[in-house]
Specification:
Helix content is about 30%, strand content about 25%. It has about 475 residues and is α+β, with helices and mostly antiparallel strands. It has 3 domains: about 210 residues, FAD/NAD(P)-binding domain, CATH 3.50.50; about 150 residues, D-Amino Acid Oxidase, subunit A, domain 2 (D-Amino Acid Oxidase, Chain A, domain 2, 2-Layer Sandwich); about 90 residues, Arc Repressor Mutant, subunit A. Strands 1, 2, 9, 10, 11, 12, 19 and 20 form an 8-stranded mixed sheet that branches. Helix 1 runs parallel beside helix 8 and helix 10 crosses helix 11. The chain binds flavin-adenine dinucleotide. Flavin-adenine dinucleotide binds next to helix 1, strand 18 and helix 8.
């Protein structure tokens, strides 16, 4: 099959690039090795829309963070993705005031609005900072967004515009002959004039496959606690400690879906698939969270998770290869990569449009398919929905109040959700207090029914099975 452009990797960066390119008269395809988009780093991060004050001035990180912060709020609004511009604070003890001032100087160079607050002013924004905190650097443009829902929404919108996505298609080799790339995958060979490498932790490997620039990659895992949504009332904003060489430090933050997270740690790893939390790493969180936040509630933890940072040198690698024509890269996208994704996509779009002289195939943006969740709609709206479809009246996930209708919608969305985890990321069924203990089997039954497959063939996602075999027939 021949394409004008193939994007490798369906994290938030690849999905945003596809969304942009699908607006043009270009035949575009995204290849993703997992069974859903947003299955790796984009699934497991802090979900913070960073303001951009702490990036080293002059770097791609600074440039794309600041521009991404402008674009991401618009995208989240248009795509109906959960988000909140709640601001952030970097908290400091008395003796750390000078460090806050240095951070503010950086903010000025990067063009980011910040204010230094004293303790009383800080408490007005965040009453639960630790007693030792005397100052904070407040950034009103920061906030939170659902990272996986953003990537899924970009993917869905790209498909509605005519882009294509092939899942479980791992790129294994990339070669070039007479100006055409041959991208060999586990699902066949695809030809393209242009390749965009957005392969995240495997970005440097894809470069090596194609014969583009070779980069050394460093991985750094970050572990988190997720707190029950009863903790949400105690956290108004994103609370950071002062950043260090290892990163932005261990934060306390609300999530766009109404939980609270503590994390991440920074644990060096040699494994590009390393997302397993460890007791030692979680202990680091137990020790550090109380330094900035006075109401840690580790007993309200409903889950722990780990995400993997991919670092190539000290900056993002974004642009065209210098050794391969028409081979573009957006790799080494560590933090603030989520915030930067829309700006990186905008930049790659401009390069490819300039190269291909492609014209826009439609002016208006196609409406996103994501409907409001049950928890977000009024009783009148719900009555109207139930009148049309009784599945809106059947709650499947009690913790997160997700109806059968929402699960069926996810299964039939532009990029269909065919696994329990894919349904979870789109609807939140299984993300609440019981972590799918109650709704998991019910979600499996709905997937089996809608896909017309036996229950024991329903997959959890990410290569994991749930049911090994059927012990009895289910009606
Ligand atoms: C602990 C942690 C906290 C973070 N917090 C924040 C934050 O609060 N705010 C922020 O802005 N940023 C944050 N980030 C950074 C952000 O999460 C990442 O920059 C972003 O998710 C990277 O997206 P990506 O698309 O480049 O990579 P990924 O999401 O990893 O996507 C790459 C995709 O490529 C696929 N792939 C790989 N190899 C192949 C192949 N051979 N064939 C086909 N597909 C392939 C993978 O399966 C994967 O789906 C954080 C990162 C971490 C690890």
């Amino acid at each position: 099959m021949k394409y004008d452009c193939i994007v490798i990797g369906g994290g938030v960066v690849g999905a945003a690039v596809l969304d942009r390119l699908a607006a043009y008269n270009l035949k575009v395809l995204l290849l993703e090795k997992e069974d859903d988009v947003a299955s790796f780093t984009t699934r497991a991060n802090s979900g913070i829309v960073h303001a951009g004050y702490d990036c080293e001035p002059g770097t791609l990180k600074a440039r794309f963070n600041v521009r991404g912060n402008e674009l991401i709020w618009r995208d989240a609004r248009e795509l109906n993705v959960p988000h909140l511009k709640c601001g952030s604070i970097v908290v400091a003890r008395k003796e750390q005031l000078e460090k806050l001032r240095e951070l503010q100087d950086r903010a000025v160079v990067n063009g980011v609005e910040t204010r230094i607050l004293d303790r009383d002013q800080t408490l007005k924004i965040e009453p639960n900072v630790a007693d030792e905190i005397e100052y904070s650097l407040y950034a009103p443009s920061a906030g939170i967004v659902s990272p996986y829902q953003l990537a899924i929404a970009y993917a869905d919108r790209a498909i509605l515009k005519g882009g294509e996505i092939l899942l479980e298609a791992e790129v294994k080799a990339v070669s070039r002959k007479n100006g055409t790339y041959f991208v060999e995958t586990s699902k066949g060979v695809f030809e393209s004039a242009i390749v965009v490498n957005c392969a995240g932790a495997y970005g440097a490997r894809v470069n090596d496959m194609a014969g583009a620039e070779h980069f050394e990659t460093v991985y750094r895992r970050g572990d988190y606690f997720v707190l029950d949504n009863t903790e949400r009332k105690n956290v108004n904003t994103v609370i950071f400690p002062l950043p260090t060489a290892a990163g932005k430090g261990i934060l306390v933050a609300p999530t766009a879906d109404g939980n609270v997270i503590y994390g991440p740690t920074a644990v060096d790893s040699a494994n590009p698939d390393d997302t397993a939390t460890t007791p030692d790493s979680l202990d680091v969180l137990r020790k550090n969270v109380p330094l900035s936040y006075k109401r840690p509630a580790f007993n309200k933890c409903i889950r722990v998770y780990g995400g993997l940072r991919t670092l190539i040198g000290h900056d993002f690698v974004v642009g065209e290869s210098k050794v391969l024509d028409n081979f573009f890269m957006a790799i080494g996208i560590c933090s603030p990569g989520l915030t930067s994704a829309p700006a990186i996509a905008e930049y790659i779009e401009a390069l490819i449009v300039e190269r291909t002289k492609a014209t826009v195939k439609q002016s208006g943006i196609v409406a996103p398919p994501r409907r409001k969740r049950l928890a977000e709609i009024s009783e009148d709206e719900l009555d109207a929905l139930i009148a049309k479809d009784s599945a809106w009246g059947r709650i499947v996930c009690r913790c997160e109040k997700v109806t059968e209708a929402e699960i069926v919608e996810a299964i039939y969305s532009p990029l269909p959700a065919t696994t329990v985890d894919a349904v979870k990321r789109r609807t939140r069924a299984g993300m609440g207090r019981c972590q799918g203990g109650f709704c998991g089997p019910k979600v499996m039954e709905i997937i089996a029914r809608e896909l017309g497959i036996p229950l024991d063939q329903v997959r959890k996602g990410g290569g994991a099975t749930i049911a090994r075999y059927a012990v009895k027939e289910v009606e």
